[in-house]
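Hi Prof. W.,

I finally got the Extended synaptotagmin-1 prediction working! I wasn't sure whether to trim anything, so I left the full sequence exactly as given:
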Amino acid sequence: MDRSPGDRPSAVDQPYAPSDPPDQPPTAHAKLDQSSGNQPAGPGAAGEALAVLTSFGRRLLVLVPVYLAGAIGLSVGFVLFGLALYLGWRRVREEKERSLRVARQLLDDEERLTAKTLYMSHRELPAWVSFPDVEKAEWLNKIVAQVWPFLGQYMEKLLAETVAPAVRGSNPHLQTFTFTRVELGEKPPRIIGVRVHPGQRKDQILLDLNISYVGDVQIDVEVKKYFCKAGVKGMQLQGVLRVILEPLIGNLPIVGAVSMFFIRRPTLDINWTGMTNLLDIPGLSSLSDTMIMDSIAAFLVLPNRLLVPLVPDLQDVAQLRSPLPRGIIRIHLLAAGGLSSKDKYVKGLIEGKSDPYALVRVGTQTFCSRVIDEELNPQWGETYEVMVHEVPGQEIEVEVFDKDPDKDDFLGRMKLDVGKVLQAGVMDEWFPLQSGQGQVHLRLEWLSLLPDAEKLEQVLQWNRGVSSRPEPPSAAILVVYLDRAQDLPLKKGNKEPNPMVQLSIQDVTQESKAVYNTNGPVWEEAFRFFLQDPRSQELDVQVKDDSRALTLGALTLPLARLLTAPELTLDQWFQLSSSGPNSRLYMKLVMRLLYLDSSEVRFPAVPGTPEAWDLDDEGPQTGSSVDAPPRPSHTTPDSNFGTENVLRIHVLEAQDLIAKDRFLGGLVKGKSDPYVKLKLGGRSFRSRVVQEDLNPRWNEVFEVIVTSIPGQELEVEVFDKDLDKDDFLGRCKVSLTTVLDNGFLDEWLTLEDVPSGRLHLRLERLTPRPTAAELEEVLQVNSLIQTQKSTELAAALLSVYLERAEDLPLRKGTKPPSPYATLAVGDTSHKTKTVSQTSAPVWDESASFLIRKPHFESLELQVRGEGTGALGSLSLPLSELLVADQLCLDHWFMLSNGPGQVLLRAQLGILVSQHSGVEAHSHSYSHSSSSLSEEPELWGGLPHITSPAPELRQRLTHSDSPLEAPAGPLGQVKLTVWYYSEERKLVGIVHSCRALRQNGRDPPDPYVSLLLLPDKNRGTKRKSSQKKRTLNPEFDERFEWEMPLDEALRRKLDVSVKSSSSFMSRERELLGKVQLDLAEIDLSQGAAQWYDLMDDKDKGSS
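And this is what came out:
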């Protein structure tokens, strides 16, 4: 139809304005236009006027803060600060909106281009056309686009009916929380490409989906009580989602479960509305996005994954949800070369260097190296260990930066697929840096996971020779699958707890999520730990309320148990201590050894030296004119090192002390409250006070480290304890020459400077022996002769010689530190001298420590700088010395928490008493009887024994024997019963029980009750602690009865093993008992012996 230029377009040619109703005829506008000259303004003019007024009102609102600041009298700085925040928020907001617009435009362009070119006007593609590995999935995008509106309806219903009530119930302040708008928008997520990985495993299908979501989603929430509105309007999310279909089964639906996760952290950008607009303020914007990404990473980024089971009763769900790593990569970040210079001086006229450091990333695992100041060819020499979960897919990424006070400059990056490391086993190469200049030198080692402990010693031996900092190399990994708990105790007021779990190995602690309002929580989480030496490490588990203040249960598990378990795996219930009687935890623990299986590995010639491989071959060559002095591989202590002895001082008793206490102005004569002071070699000791006694018995033992310097004396003083000033009761001196020469002294010493009094002392020299063969015997002897008033007796002497350190970190400005070192074992420490301004100090100092439990104690070394703080540390478990040759380690040790290393010698000596009968046990059993016959005078009469030696002479020879009789039907109890004449006490030690009877479904909670017959009162009754749910409890508890020997021989010892019947009942179940006639037992021997438990009709309460 022809139309003149002046005619109006029809409704088909021009869309209607938003303000017009859709059914208005097009002539309406014409009529309004023809009469516009004389008619009042229409709706369009009113809208324009309203828009002008709104804009003017907004500008007035901007001036309100300025007016308020002036009215209150605030500084102009507050206004400027607020203005800066507003401008920053506006800039971030505009950038996000512009980014969303650009992304949507690119998405629309891609759709139009695909429609024009990919489908070739709906013609079929030729047969010879092939696709790359990453394929388009437009058919899948069409399905997603079709489903997207219905998914929006489901999400709206889910948020309104499920999420909103849960939020309202979580906090009383959120009771008016509601979703006011839920729209997923018209833009669905797009799958840019799909890649299928063939040939991985027969029972799984592996897909990688490249997902891009540029959505116009809008979700608004409101808390009406506080007039608070917030929401999201627009979002971008891009990443590679891996989908694993496994296991494939022979029944419908063919696939047992679907696992989904992002291989790397996806990129995220969110456009906030309402109150959450504040999150677009500079600084908060990146922080909020990072927090959200951390939440997504904790749920959907490796090693975390979403598992959707498709069939009921699926086996190994925990293994599918958190599978074992494919392997471990040990990354040696060695050096870099040819880096670009970023530091400029005098406004760029003078070119400096750079202060480089490196960031190493594999998935969510990130490590940062130390900064090397003013160097374009830095040498880091650092080692990191990362877990690899997916091959192919994960990448090793190294980024190098120049450290600056404001913003660090980027120097370059490199990326490498972990699959190449798996194929090579060991890679030692220089990798070029992309987006920059220079190279980075890496040594990459693939460590396989072994399910048995056969090669543990080989792995540990190799690790001792590996130079690794800042952390020592690992020998194994531990994966803990935390499943659930049962019957946890309630909080006060019978309230349900909110349980969470803390798992710790040494100084590494990980926490589970909290499960609210239940005493039977289900966590289904996995935790991973690196282990340096699984033989000596322990897993500590603490079940706590989410406030961390209330402990609901605890468990300590030695990891050595896993070394003997099938496939290094424990999958069972664990009984919790310090908890309810039925509280237990279900966990699956899997250990795997880290084994480097490659013919390219070269073992270092000297364990403990720096890297066995010379990376740059730039050091001086042998025979050259610039040869550096050789670095010592062992220490060179002086001849007096390790020659110390231990003097054991036994303060027994005193007699005829003078009375110092007076009453009623001296008219009434009292007694004294004596105690003893000992002084030797700069150390002093003090005994306990015995009240109102002129013939006191202390029976206390003190130990001091002594040298062979002649002329040493032990000074002894006795005082009477008073409220004001203690009264002097006498003194004496003992020359150590006799004790050090003969090894033993037992004398009554007359007190000097007083009218009367004498003191009974026993002194013994203990010479350290470099063998661990007698350690267990020494520990057992110490437990028997240990008095309740004394500290625990030492079993060994540790001598440490600290010679020097090297490669300590420099202070700021490349100045060397002024280092000193502290050596500590328990509460005893030694501080070296401070060496001024050097990174390679030479100390040449030694220290000695008394060791009471060599299996559990460790030497702690701290290297610190004067005024600069910690430079490095070392923790050396003494258990490593027990397995070393001559109980000695002498080499370089790498420091943790720093780049340095120290050269020291640590040697252990076992303290064997010459008067405890250990020598008799060190030979064969056939010699024990001859040992007795050589000292007949000591065994003439039992009541006249004064030395502990004969009492213990044959004690150890009657301990556990390979020819022990099997346990009876009710089990056995292991006891030591002997008479300690020095204290005039009958001593009983309950060691353990074995093969106890189990009457019910659960194992018993056994304890041991001891009673001296014929008395049945509480004065002679003793009771051990209670062990939870075990048929083989370990007690090792000591009990004493003070009585003369002749009375002890008239008694019978009744030993009963019992179990608690229920938590609330006082009834006790008798598991078995044995009655010992002490007159028929040789109380002088103190032998540990197994006794069969017998039945008894009396099963009353204890």
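The longest strand covers residues 205-223. Does that look reasonable to you?

Thanks,
D.
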